Structure to design on (67 residues):
């Protein structure tokens, strides 16, 4: 009895497939612009989270001082 053959290549992930399609469909400038835009979105989210946390700390400090 023979063992089943082992698959030598890994099945690509969804991310890998999307990046491959992006490479085929978009020029390098568009890819760069899209990635820069996504980086900006992530940075905006981080700053918004930091603002909320700072506001909560300030409100807690004011509440502690008035108590």
């Amino acid at each position: 009895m023979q063992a089943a053959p082992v698959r030598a290549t890994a099945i690509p992930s969804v991310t890998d497939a999307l990046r491959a399609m992006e490479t085929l469909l978009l020029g390098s400038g568009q890819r760069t612009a899209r990635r820069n835009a996504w980086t900006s979105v992530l940075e905006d989210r981080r700053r918004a989270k930091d603002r909320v946390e700072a506001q909560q700390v300030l409100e807690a400090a004011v509440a502690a001082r008035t108590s």
About this structure: The chain has a mean pLDDT of 86. DSSP finds two helices and no strands in the chain.
